[in-house]
Amino acid sequence: MSDYDDVWLVIPAYNEGTVIADVVENARKVFPNIVVVDDGSTDNSAEHILTTGAHLVRHPVNLGQGAALQTGLAYALKQPGAAYFATFDADGQHQTPDVEKMVALLRDDQADVVLGSRFIEQTGEVPWIKRVVLRTAATISPTARKLNLTDSHNGLRVLNRKAAAQLRITMNGMAHASEIVAFLASADLRVTEVPVDILYTEYSRSKGQSLINGVNILFDISLRERARK
Amino acid sequence: MKYIWIQLLLLVGTGALVLTFVRRWDRAHTRAWKRMAFAAFVIANVYAVFRPQDVTWIANQLGVGRGTDLVLYLLVVAMAFMTLNSFMRFRSLEAKLTDLARAIAVNDGQRVNDDRFTAEQAEVRAETADR
After folding, report:
1. How far is CA B131 from each of CA A135, B34, B121, B122, B127, rounded to the nearest angstrom?
2. How far apart are CA A72 and CA A170, in angstroms?
3. In chain B, positions 91-130, which contact chain A (CB-CB < 8 Å)?
4. What angle do CA A75, A77, A82 make, to 5 degrees?
5. Which domains does chain A show, CATH number per domain?
6. Taking a C-beta distance cutoff of 8 angstroms, is the pair B102, A74 a contact?
């Protein structure tokens, strides 16, 4: 038994075989309930996940990170006793103490959703070019501004059951981060941000979003806005 | 003023394009319109093969020099429609594929994980019983 029996970590993984087992076992020291969504990996990610104590859910085909998050949330929501849901990256750049801090806020009922931000209490750890682009994204995005967010593209988020049950990620690719922010802005939920530390390791840098992919994300989002009306 | 009619025609075509894009596309009546447009397209094709001079006449009435140019303009609009149409269709297919894959993933995952963790618990129980 643990203090965090009612918390589920959702980790989307695509070809993360080299690190996933370590990341999961590390997180399991604090959080017993973890579901890893193997997004149709072509490497041995699934085998590595099976050696851990995490639940494994496998997409039969690769669908994208947004789809993997939604699948993980759908799975976690069905588990008995699940009350809080955290999205967590598979590359080891998130830290469990940050998640504990965020869960504590939800337990206090101070918010429905807590988002991690790299820009409150600047640590100087974020590469400068990334900082400029991400700050720009947060500033020009009307929804991020509405919620007063400083970082709209952080993978670390904790939702309570009410928020997680409402969330419907339809952007399968990387545009889901903006979609989640848009959802939060339109939903009747209390959203807050807390500073988190991101470990920019060699590995996470190599797996991270290249900035040119920002073009794809902008395109996807603009089309989604159109299609909705 | 010479080009007013063809300009109007092309603008209306583009406007209709934007409209189908903005509004929900896969309603039955949109589909009916698409089919009617396709039928008209086929009939116009057959007609143009037999009476090319009429196409040129229509082109002249619209302020376009040659029938070939008119056909080219209309092709551009038709092509834009087709591109948009297949794009929308792909997106709706992708959404269905995602739902399907998710249902499979969650069901299979639930079964596999139930097996894994109940087996583990049984092992633990067996071990403690041995001691």
Report:
1. 59, 75, 16, 15, 7
2. 14
3. 91, 94-95, 97-98, 101-102, 104-106, 108-110, 112-113, 116-117
4. 120
5. 7-228 (3.90.550.10)
6. yes
Residue from B17, B19, B98 whose CB has the most chain A CBs within 10 Å, to mutate: B98
**Residues A143/A182, Cβ–Cβ less than 8 Å:** yes
Chain A hits for B107, CB-CB cut-off 8 Å, are none
| Residue B36 C-alpha, separation from nearest chain A C-alpha, in angstroms | 24
Rounded to the nearest angstrom, the minimum Cα separation between B34 and chain A is: 19
C-beta pairs of B35-40 under 8 Å, 24+ apart in sequence = B37/B81
Nearest Cβ partner of B105 from A57, A172, A229? A57
At B76, which helix (H) or strand (E)? helix B67-130
Identify the domain containing residue B37 by its residue range: 4-130
Place of tokens 């299609």: A227
A164 and A73 Cβ atoms separated by less than 8 Å: yes
A24-77 pLDDT per residue, tens: 999 999 999 999 999 999 999 999 999 999 999 999 999 999 999 999 999 999
Provide the number of structural domains found in chain B.
1
Q: Is pLDDT larger for residue A130 or for residue B4?
A: B4
**Backbone phi and psi for residue B111, each to the nearest 5 degrees, phi listed first:** -65, -50
Confirm whether pTM is higher than 0.95: no
Kindly give, in sequence order, each residue whose CB lies less than 8 Å from that of residue A41, ignoring residues fewer than 6 positions away: A13, A14, A15, A16, A17, A62
Test the B interface: residue of A5, A10, A59 with most B CBs within 10 Å: A59
Calpha distance A1→A3 (Å, rounded): 7
CB contact under 8 A, B109 and A78: no
